[in-house]
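User: I'm writing a short report section on ligand binding and want a predicted complex to refer to. Could you take this sequence and phosphoric acid mono(formamide)ester and write out the structure as tokens? A short remark afterwards would be nice.
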Amino acid sequence: MARRTKDNVWDKFSRIGVILVLLYVMFIILGFAVRLLFFSDERGTSIIPEGNGVVASAEGTSAQSTAASETATTNENILDLSVEELDELIATANDIIANPKKYSEKCRGLKLATLFFEPSTRTRLSFETAVNRLGGRVIGFSDASTTSSSKGETLKDTILMVSNYVDLIIMRHHLEGAARYASEVTDVPIINAGDGANQHPSQTMLDLYSIRKTQGKLDNLTITMVGDLKYGRTVHSLIVGMSHFHPTFHFVAPNELRMPDEQKNFCDKHGLKYEEHTDFTEDIINQTDILYMTRVQRERFTDLEEYERVKNVYILRNDMLRNSRENLRILHPLPRVNEIAYDVDDNPKAYYIQQARNGLFARQAIICEVLGISIDE
Ligand code: CP
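Assistant: Sure. The structure tokens for the complex follow:
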């Protein structure tokens, strides 16, 4: 009897112990969930609203930029620009190429930040070169793990801090809508240098510039987009950028990486013609003016086995171009992995290296536009 009582007491204690451990675990999980939802800047948070943010108001920026900030563009998305405004940006880029000295002091006294939470070669370096060529100064980071965001600082706080130091922020982030969110927490203009799989507007400016330069026009072109159309922010932005110009699109992608409904609905709404294909054939290439190749983006896949299945699904080889149009140009936002064979590089229709170079001038033009800098003498 005494033994049974002792057992009962131990049973009771162990039950209470289990309940306490469960409560502790629930408390930890709840705390983590609250932090993730409201305070964190980790992938998957819900703190950032949807949007394609490119530019925010510049009112109230630091003293050096008073003149610029008075005229800077307010809450404007470069992809929303009119045909005339896009023409002006392209004309400015051409003027910058023709008269580099005229622009060498345009940003004198201004400071810009490049905040790259995601890797980049072209976008960051061309923006930084663009600032240098305009006479401005750059601060920033290319590896967020070396910043206080690795200690748990939120995107909001990082943006507010950097806003204390600079007149313009150029930001790349893995979260869709991050640039729009940043533009809502600061008065310093924000340029979206790519937000997750959403948009890459400055890439689109240099793409439009490259298309105009190689085709002599933007209207009524057939543009074939190949590869990762699901996660490819450059193709999402290019559809918007081309929407004024009556394009015909061919979307070539495996089923797993098809153009999302959002972009197809956009095409439907704006009367843009498109066809979808899973085979990348010479027949499609031969109808094309601009062949826009893209990389399958490993970093966007949650299932790496799926990536392995589709990563080399389309490879453009030189012999596939034998009957292509004379005016065909091959574009690629780069980096390339395997999707363009190296034997294409020597084909005069390969334009991707020049395309990246055009990014420098397009980005100089964008910076002048965003800061409201007069391009007259
Ligand atoms: N096109 C592009 O965005 O290249 P990076 O990722 O190197 O900046």
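A remark for your report: Confidence is low (pLDDT under 50) at residues 31-75. The pocket of phosphoric acid mono(formamide)ester is lined by residues 120-123, 194, 203, 333-335 (CB under 6 Å).
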